[in-house]
């Protein structure tokens, strides 16, 4: 790769967390450095001493932050954000690929829209070989069109804070590698919650949505490599942390309709855990789980699940 000089004027700090040494890391790193926005730094937070792709790429815009082995991913991300010196911070997962114009377009849109605290975009999905399997991840997102009714120039849409906060209760359209956040807003709301586990991103989007307007671009901003995250955790652990994040979000609302919606989603996840217990032939735990779901948000489905658990 051709070496570039470091600009004193850094507009975007890209934070990459490298918990292991994935084969896709080299491509992800090079996609960040190939951005048509040259005024950037790429902060690579490494879980232990690593060589490989990071050491092989010679570019003065790379800031390597080695950490002791065994650190949690969220801890690494928070360390990277704390090192950022640009007015905008972008997140990039080590398996994803940025499009060349993603950062320049987003910075320009945020500069024109001071009310917006952060921006996100549509993305495409690729398989492990890099082949596109879905050209748009958000085209069929049912709730997104109701949020983006304030058009901006080009492909950008302004989503007002109150509208976005409520919309997130129904569907999360944000992909992590598509997010660019004002650094002063990151300072205002604090770090990612390290106890939230695999649902920490959603927890953070909830917190962002309660603070500022958002910008959304329907243009594909990055490629998300499918299958990697799914191998890193179980369905049960994801549902448990999801429930905790939803309960924290419920505490932020006094509106009854919003609280009822959160109860419905919590109950769905309680039922998912109960069904998992049923498949493991833990009848009484399963029945208790469905009863908990029914108590949270009454639905005849949970009574049916409870009956199936008892009769199984």
CATH topology of the largest domain: the name is Spore Coat Polysaccharide Biosynthesis Protein SpsA, Chain A
What's the helix-strand series? EHEHEHEEHEEHEEHEHHEHHHH
User: How would you describe the shape?
Assistant: globular
What would the average pLDDT be, to the nearest integer? 88
What's the count of strands? 11
Strand content: 15-25%
CATH superfamily of the largest domain: Spore Coat Polysaccharide Biosynthesis Protein SpsA, Chain A
CA-to-CA gap between the ends? Answer: 61 Å
Describe the 3D structure:
The protein is α/β, with parallel strands linked by helices and 312 residues long. It folds into two domains: 12-232, Spore Coat Polysaccharide Biosynthesis Protein SpsA, Chain A (Alpha-Beta Complex), CATH 3.90.550.10; 235-311, no CATH class. Helix content is 42%, strand content 21%. It is built from twelve helices and eleven strands. Helix 2 links the parallel strand 2 (40-47) and strand 3 (62-67). The protein is globular. The chain starts with 11 loop residues before the first strand and ends with a helix. Residues 1-5 have low confidence and may be disordered.
């Amino acid at each position: 790769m051709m070496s570039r000089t470091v600009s004193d004027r850094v507009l975007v700090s890209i934070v990459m967390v490298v918990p292991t040494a994935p084969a896709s890391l080299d491509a992800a790193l090079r996609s960040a450095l190939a951005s048509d926005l040259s005024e950037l730094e790429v902060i690579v937070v490494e879980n232990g001493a690593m060589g490989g792709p990071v050491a092989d790429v010679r570019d003065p815009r790379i800031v390597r932050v080695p950490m002791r082995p065994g650190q949690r991913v969220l801890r690494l991300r928070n360390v990277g954000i704390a090192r950022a010196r640009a007015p905008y911070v972008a997140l990039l997962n080590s398996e994803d690929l940025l499009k060349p114009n993603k950062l320049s377009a987003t910075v320009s849109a945020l500069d024109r829209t001071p009310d917006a605290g952060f921006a996100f975009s549509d993305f495409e999905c690729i398989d492990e070989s890099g082949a596109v399997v879905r050209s748009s991840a958000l085209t069929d997102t049912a709730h997104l069109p109701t949020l983006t009714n304030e058009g901006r120039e080009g492909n950008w849409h302004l989503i007002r804070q109150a509208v976005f906060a409520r919309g997130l209760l129904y569907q999360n359209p944000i992909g992590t590698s598509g997010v660019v956040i004002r650094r002063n807003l990151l300072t205002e709301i604090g770090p990612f919650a390290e106890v939230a586990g695999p649902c920490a991103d959603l927890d953070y989007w909830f917190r962002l949505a309660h603070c500022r307007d958002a910008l959304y671009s329907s243009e594909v901003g990055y490629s998300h490599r499918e299958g990697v995250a799914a191998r890193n955790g179980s369905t049960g652990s994801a549902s448990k942390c999801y429930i905790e994040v939803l309960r924290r979000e419920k505490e932020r609302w006094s509106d009854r309709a919003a609280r009822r919606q959160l109860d419905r989603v919590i109950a769905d996840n309680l039922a998912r855990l109960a069904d998992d217990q049923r498949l493991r032939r833990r009848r009484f735990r399963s029945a208790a789980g469905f009863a908990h779901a029914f108590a949270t948000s009454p639905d005849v489905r949970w009574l049916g699940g409870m009956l199936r658990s008892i009769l199984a």
